[in-house]
Amino acid sequence: MYDNGLIFCAVTAAALDLCILILIIASYREKSSSRKRWKSFSSDMELFENGRSYYLGCDEVLIGRHGSADIRLHDMSVSRYHAIMTITDGVWTITDIGSKSGIYVNGRPVKQKKLHENDIITLGSRRLVFRKRRDKKK
Question: What is the pTM (predicted TM-score) of this model?
């Protein structure tokens, strides 16, 4: 009886280890395929300013001076919560969310604007270029 219990525990532990291994492999595959889907969906875009790139890594990107902003711009001319960028059907849009100095795209004031590659976005005194990502880090 003792040997059967020990064998049962060993088999159970091996089965559990196998299940965990399968979950890890499935999780890795899902992460990899989701990264590929996101890359094609987002067109691998970024905001670029003075040698610094801001990767647009999710479908909503909050831009502002506050610490909780996805893209934090340390500049008093930028509101704490200045703008939000969203992507729908592969098209990025920028929206002013109550900033004091507004948003300008290619020199024109906007409340909301669909973005195109190489658009220049001005938030306060900051000028960012919306472009395809040059640095292919993962």
Answer: 0.69
Under 8 Å between Cβ of 101 and 124? yes
Q: How is residue 64 written in tokens?
A: 């502002």
CA gap 128, 135 in Å, rounded:
16
Confidence at 67, pLDDT banded by 50, 70, 90: very high
| SS3 per-residue string spanning the chain | CHHHHHHHHHHHHHHHHHHHHHHHHHHHHHHHHHHHHHHHHHCCEEEEECCEEEECCCCEEEEECCCCCCEECCCCCCCCCCEEEEEECCEEEEEECCCCCCEEECCEEECEEECCCCEEEEECCEEEEEEECCCCCC
Phi and psi angles of residue 24, each rounded to the nearest 5 degrees, phi first = -65, -45
* Helix (H) or strand (E) run with residue 40 in it: helix 2-42
pLDDT tens, position by position, 101-113:
999 999 999 999 9
Q: Are 123 and 83 in contact (CB under 8 A)?
A: yes
Beta bridge partners of 64: 72
